[in-house]
Every structure is written in C-alpha cells, then in structure tokens.
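FW: tagging you since you asked about this chain on Friday. Here's the raw sequence from the shared folder, copied in full. Didn't touch anything.
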Amino acid sequence: MRSRNFLFILCFCLPLKFLHGQTTFSKLYWNYPATTLGLAIALSDENIYVVGRGASYVGPYLRPNVFFLRTDYSGNMLLSKNVLSGENYTYREGFTSGLEFISDSILAFAGIFERFDTLFPPWFQEHNGMIYFFDLEGDTISTKRFIGDGFLEFSRLYYDRVRKRIYAGGGTRDTLIEPGLAYTVCLDSAGNLLWDQRLGDGILTELTGLYDVFDNGNIVAGGIVSQPPDQQNGKWYKMDGNGNAYFEKVVGTFGYDREIEIKVSKNQHSLIARQTIDTLISPGDYEKCTYIGKMDTNGVFLWRTFLNDVYYKYLYTTRTFSDGSIVAVGVRYVDDTFEPHGYMVKLDSNGTVLWERDYTNNPDGNHYLYDFQKMPDGGYIASRTWG
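HL: got it, structure written out here
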C-alpha cells in the first residue's frame, strides 16, 4: 500500500462517471497548494459532493486539512475549498466512504484531529476522532471531537436515516503502540452523543468503523484484529441499538489478512462481505487474494467469489442494491509496471462477476477508486486520486 508520503506528492481528486463500467466522463481537479484525495462521495438531486484530504500553508508550513468539492452531474466544478485548521491537523482519512447527508442542507463525515507538538517523539500531543458538519457551501456548521483512550482514529461515518442516528468509530488506545479496542460512537442528527462503546479484550489490537444496520436497528461493525506476533484477521460485531455486542466473529487465515467490511443485503436476509486474505488461490496468482462473499446472518458463508489474479487487487468500498447486485471499487495492478489502476467490479446475487474494469489516465500514474454512488440513470459516479 502507498505510504503516508503522499502528502508531498501532487495528487488529484478525479470523479468518473460509468455506465455498465464504461467511462462516460472523467474530470480532473486540483486545489492549491498540494494534495487532494477524493475519499468519499455523496449525491443530492442536482450536485455531486466529494471530501478528502487537502493541505494549506499555515505560515511557512504545509498543514493537512479537509478538501471540499461540489460539482454538477456533468462533473463541472461549482465549488472547491480547503477547510483551514489553524495550528492543528484536521482532515479526512481512512480511504473509505462515509460522506452522508443528514438533512437536505447538512453533510456529515468523520476524520482525524491532530495537534502537532514537535518533530521528535511523542510527535502528536493529541490524536482524536472528529465528526464534521458542513453546509452545502463547505462551511463548517460544527465539529465534534472524541478523545477515546487518548489515541483515536475514525474510519468511517454511517447515517441511519430511519432512526436518525450517526455512527462513527475505529480504534482507540493509550498510545499508538499499545493494544487497542474497537470504538464506536452514536450521535443523534444534531450531533449530541447518545452512547459510546469499547469492544475487545484489551490484549489484541482491534479496529472497527465500517458500519451498516439491520432494519431492526442492530448495527454491524466490521474491522480488523491484530494477533501478535504475525497474524491479523478481519473481525466483525453485531451490536444492538445501545451499542451492546451480542455477536462477534473472526474471519481470515493464519496469515496477515486485512479488514473485513460487512454490508446488510437489501432484503435483510443475508450479509455481504469483502476482504483481502493472505492466501494463494492458484499457482502463479498474487500471494494475497481479495474476495466478495455472501453470508447468512450468523456469519456462515453461502458463497465466496475470489477475485484472484496474477497481480494485486484490493477493495475499499462495497455497496449492495435492491436487485441483489453487488458493486465494489478499489485498486489493482494489470501488468509488470505495477502501476495502480482504479478498479470496479459488479457481481449478481449469486456471486457471478458481471463485469470488472480498470481505469487509468496515465500509465505512469497512481490511480485509486475510494468511493462511489449509483446515479439516477443507473450509472455510477466514483471519486479517486491520480498522481
């Protein structure tokens, strides 16, 4: 995966429009002075909104902040801005979706607050989770900061429109190197904290933050658990509406797997999972394999479609639709140049791959698809980086 040095690389937010996976338009955006990462995307009736990680000069220093973009449905830019953060680093992170409308005029999403202390350890005097509330002009309405156990990162925000509840979370620990707990906060639509919950045994390092809900108000929280010295697996929980866990399951291999994302199918009768596992499927394939699978509500796999290839693939965001189809976006390599290409795949309800595409504008550039939404005409709009 790409290192955090990308802050000093020129990157661009590049929404693309697809119909049946074929590109119908792509637009390139860059906001001075440095990177913009199109990490999360949302749609209104007329506009496309993207938030990501940008940067601004505060005095002589380049400081990370939130980048906000609004376009029309043809991708024409109507507004872009860096949301300044003064002496602090405040930005959108996580490489996952999670920009949500909580009303017709308010957007919410999760991020990170850091106060840079010194170039030497302990480095970050504060490292907390943030929830931002923006109006449609990208102006801050309010922010909510959560300390957790001291070192906290949010991975994604999810909004339950039926119960008007906001869920955000990730992992919290005393310091970066200490064992962590899975951490979830629940807020009402005004941003008032209703409850927070820590899950885990305090020995293994845990991270959740990839959320979905059942129609009975129960929550699915997907994530990862690290088991020293060299094992890491996906782990997910079911929680009731008050954050109490009543089911948990570890999914993976004896190797170094990645997080598991769980989505609830539209008929509520099954769960859809995506994960990258430390497994070689066929001779000559890449050493790790990405799959999309369907499980019953107890976590037993009904099928798994392995997207194995000779080159690396990885998925960031998965969505399910009322016709039973499953669409996911991410990144893959296509040849021995090992240049990342944006990647999208669509499956039917039985796990059959209907199509998969890769997207690149420049064979020497890095391309990642982080999030997408389905358009009213049946196509898809995705946000990505190019650099």
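FW: The first strand starts at residue 12 and ends at 13.
HL: agreed, and The CA atoms of residues 294 and 378 lie 23 Å apart.
FW: great, closing this out.
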